[in-house]
Amino acid sequence: MLTTARRRRATAVATLALAGCALTAVSAVAAPPGDNGDVKIHVEFKPDAEPDNDPHVCSFYLDAFNFDAGEKVHWKIAGQPPSAGGSAEEGDLTLNAGGGGTTDVIALSNGHYKLTWLTDKGHGAGKHKVFWVDCPPGGPGGPGGPNGGPPAGGGGLARGDAFAPVAGAAVGLTAVGGVMWFRLRRRPHGA
After folding, report:
1. What is the mean pLDDT, run by run of 10 residues, along the chain of 191 residues?
2. Beta strands at 59-65 and 101-102: parallel, antiparallel or unpaired
Protein backbone atom coordinates (compact mmCIF):
# COMPACT_ATOMS: atom_id res chain seq x y z
CA MET A 1 0.00 0.00 0.00
CA LEU A 2 1.25 3.49 -0.84
CA THR A 3 2.25 5.78 1.99
CA THR A 4 0.57 9.16 2.30
CA ALA A 5 3.62 11.05 0.95
CA ARG A 6 3.95 8.72 -2.05
CA ARG A 7 0.23 8.97 -2.73
CA ARG A 8 0.43 12.79 -2.69
CA ARG A 9 3.41 12.76 -5.07
CA ALA A 10 1.66 10.39 -7.46
CA THR A 11 -1.46 12.60 -7.40
CA ALA A 12 0.64 15.74 -8.01
CA VAL A 13 2.46 14.17 -10.99
CA ALA A 14 -0.81 12.96 -12.51
CA THR A 15 -2.39 16.41 -12.03
CA LEU A 16 0.57 18.17 -13.66
CA ALA A 17 0.54 15.77 -16.62
CA LEU A 18 -3.19 16.29 -17.12
CA ALA A 19 -2.82 20.09 -16.86
CA GLY A 20 0.03 20.04 -19.39
CA CYS A 21 -2.07 18.08 -21.88
CA ALA A 22 -5.01 20.46 -21.41
CA LEU A 23 -2.86 23.57 -21.90
CA THR A 24 -1.26 22.13 -25.04
CA ALA A 25 -4.67 21.44 -26.54
CA VAL A 26 -5.91 24.96 -25.67
CA SER A 27 -2.91 26.66 -27.29
CA ALA A 28 -3.39 24.68 -30.50
CA VAL A 29 -7.09 25.53 -30.68
CA ALA A 30 -6.54 29.20 -29.77
CA ALA A 31 -4.05 29.92 -32.57
CA PRO A 32 -5.32 32.97 -34.46
CA PRO A 33 -6.35 32.49 -38.10
CA GLY A 34 -3.53 33.00 -40.56
CA ASP A 35 -0.72 31.95 -38.26
CA ASN A 36 -1.18 28.25 -38.90
CA GLY A 37 0.07 26.11 -41.76
CA ASP A 38 3.51 25.35 -43.10
CA VAL A 39 5.45 25.82 -46.30
CA LYS A 40 8.13 23.43 -47.54
CA ILE A 41 10.72 23.50 -50.30
CA HIS A 42 10.64 20.37 -52.47
CA VAL A 43 12.93 19.16 -55.24
CA GLU A 44 11.26 19.33 -58.63
CA PHE A 45 9.84 15.83 -59.04
CA LYS A 46 8.89 15.09 -55.42
CA PRO A 47 5.22 14.18 -54.73
CA ASP A 48 3.16 16.85 -52.93
CA ALA A 49 2.09 14.38 -50.24
CA GLU A 50 5.54 14.30 -48.63
CA PRO A 51 5.66 17.09 -46.02
CA ASP A 52 9.41 17.04 -45.44
CA ASN A 53 11.70 19.93 -46.36
CA ASP A 54 14.57 19.76 -48.87
CA PRO A 55 17.20 22.34 -47.84
CA HIS A 56 19.51 21.52 -50.80
CA VAL A 57 17.83 21.67 -54.19
CA CYS A 58 18.39 22.45 -57.86
CA SER A 59 15.00 22.99 -59.52
CA PHE A 60 12.27 23.16 -56.86
CA TYR A 61 8.76 24.26 -55.96
CA LEU A 62 7.07 25.63 -52.84
CA ASP A 63 4.45 23.42 -51.19
CA ALA A 64 1.95 24.85 -48.66
CA PHE A 65 -0.37 22.86 -46.40
CA ASN A 66 -2.60 23.28 -43.33
CA PHE A 67 -3.27 26.98 -43.93
CA ASP A 68 -6.73 28.55 -43.79
CA ALA A 69 -8.92 27.90 -46.83
CA GLY A 70 -8.53 30.44 -49.63
CA GLU A 71 -5.66 32.40 -48.06
CA LYS A 72 -3.75 34.65 -50.42
CA VAL A 73 0.03 34.36 -50.23
CA HIS A 74 2.84 36.61 -51.41
CA TRP A 75 6.20 34.85 -51.41
CA LYS A 76 9.65 36.25 -52.03
CA ILE A 77 13.03 34.54 -52.39
CA ALA A 78 16.13 36.67 -51.77
CA GLY A 79 19.83 35.85 -51.81
CA GLN A 80 21.53 35.38 -48.44
CA PRO A 81 25.21 35.65 -47.49
CA PRO A 82 27.56 34.23 -48.62
CA SER A 83 25.62 34.60 -51.91
CA ALA A 84 24.84 37.93 -53.52
CA GLY A 85 21.85 39.74 -52.00
CA GLY A 86 18.80 41.13 -53.71
CA SER A 87 15.51 39.66 -54.80
CA ALA A 88 15.80 36.53 -56.89
CA GLU A 89 12.15 35.51 -57.40
CA GLU A 90 8.70 36.37 -56.05
CA GLY A 91 5.07 35.61 -56.75
CA ASP A 92 1.51 35.30 -55.49
CA LEU A 93 -0.57 32.21 -54.79
CA THR A 94 -4.16 31.62 -53.66
CA LEU A 95 -4.49 28.47 -51.55
CA ASN A 96 -7.26 25.92 -52.15
CA ALA A 97 -10.21 24.99 -49.92
CA GLY A 98 -8.00 22.53 -48.03
CA GLY A 99 -5.47 25.26 -47.19
CA GLY A 100 -2.83 23.95 -49.57
CA GLY A 101 -1.16 24.86 -52.83
CA THR A 102 2.05 24.69 -54.83
CA THR A 103 3.99 27.06 -57.04
CA ASP A 104 5.34 26.33 -60.49
CA VAL A 105 8.88 24.93 -60.65
CA ILE A 106 11.50 27.56 -59.81
CA ALA A 107 15.11 27.49 -61.07
CA LEU A 108 17.69 29.84 -59.54
CA SER A 109 21.43 30.13 -59.91
CA ASN A 110 23.57 28.31 -57.34
CA GLY A 111 23.65 30.03 -53.96
CA HIS A 112 22.13 30.53 -50.52
CA TYR A 113 18.55 31.88 -50.37
CA LYS A 114 15.82 32.84 -47.91
CA LEU A 115 12.10 32.37 -48.57
CA THR A 116 9.65 34.81 -46.97
CA TRP A 117 6.02 33.61 -47.02
CA LEU A 118 3.37 36.23 -46.15
CA THR A 119 -0.36 35.46 -45.98
CA ASP A 120 -3.21 37.97 -46.08
CA LYS A 121 -4.59 36.61 -42.77
CA GLY A 122 -1.22 36.35 -41.00
CA HIS A 123 0.00 38.37 -38.04
CA GLY A 124 3.67 39.27 -37.89
CA ALA A 125 6.64 38.63 -40.12
CA GLY A 126 5.29 35.50 -41.88
CA LYS A 127 7.12 32.23 -42.35
CA HIS A 128 10.75 31.87 -43.41
CA LYS A 129 12.91 29.10 -44.85
CA VAL A 130 16.62 29.21 -45.64
CA PHE A 131 17.95 26.84 -48.31
CA TRP A 132 20.72 26.21 -50.83
CA VAL A 133 20.45 25.87 -54.59
CA ASP A 134 23.24 23.57 -55.74
CA CYS A 135 22.87 22.40 -59.34
CA PRO A 136 25.37 20.20 -61.20
CA PRO A 137 27.46 21.77 -63.98
CA GLY A 138 25.15 22.82 -66.77
CA GLY A 139 22.39 24.00 -64.41
CA PRO A 140 18.96 22.45 -63.91
CA GLY A 141 18.57 19.41 -66.14
CA GLY A 142 22.32 19.26 -66.75
CA PRO A 143 24.41 16.10 -66.64
CA GLY A 144 23.91 14.13 -63.46
CA GLY A 145 26.18 11.89 -61.43
CA PRO A 146 26.67 8.15 -61.77
CA ASN A 147 23.05 7.38 -60.85
CA GLY A 148 21.88 9.12 -64.01
CA GLY A 149 23.10 6.32 -66.31
CA PRO A 150 21.64 2.93 -67.16
CA PRO A 151 21.10 0.52 -64.24
CA ALA A 152 24.14 -1.68 -64.95
CA GLY A 153 26.76 -2.32 -67.60
CA GLY A 154 26.65 1.18 -69.03
CA GLY A 155 29.36 2.67 -66.84
CA GLY A 156 26.98 3.89 -64.12
CA LEU A 157 26.15 2.46 -60.75
CA ALA A 158 23.14 0.19 -60.47
CA ARG A 159 20.21 1.69 -58.60
CA GLY A 160 19.01 0.14 -55.34
CA ASP A 161 15.74 -0.94 -57.03
CA ALA A 162 17.66 -3.37 -59.24
CA PHE A 163 19.22 -5.13 -56.24
CA ALA A 164 16.13 -5.48 -54.02
CA PRO A 165 14.91 -8.91 -55.30
CA VAL A 166 18.45 -10.34 -55.39
CA ALA A 167 19.25 -9.04 -51.90
CA GLY A 168 16.00 -10.47 -50.49
CA ALA A 169 16.71 -13.90 -51.95
CA ALA A 170 20.30 -13.84 -50.69
CA VAL A 171 19.20 -12.94 -47.16
CA GLY A 172 16.55 -15.68 -47.20
CA LEU A 173 18.95 -18.35 -48.43
CA THR A 174 21.57 -17.31 -45.87
CA ALA A 175 19.02 -17.51 -43.03
CA VAL A 176 17.78 -20.96 -44.09
CA GLY A 177 21.34 -22.23 -44.53
CA GLY A 178 22.33 -20.89 -41.10
CA VAL A 179 19.38 -22.56 -39.38
CA MET A 180 20.16 -25.88 -41.07
CA TRP A 181 23.84 -25.66 -40.15
CA PHE A 182 23.08 -24.97 -36.47
CA ARG A 183 20.52 -27.76 -36.37
CA LEU A 184 22.87 -30.33 -37.91
CA ARG A 185 25.79 -29.17 -35.78
CA ARG A 186 23.72 -29.51 -32.59
CA ARG A 187 22.71 -33.10 -33.36
CA PRO A 188 25.63 -35.22 -34.48
CA HIS A 189 23.34 -38.00 -35.76
CA GLY A 190 21.65 -35.54 -38.18
CA ALA A 191 18.07 -36.05 -37.02
Report:
1. 66 54 48 75 76 85 90 91 76 92 90 91 85 81 44 48 56 61 60 59
2. antiparallel
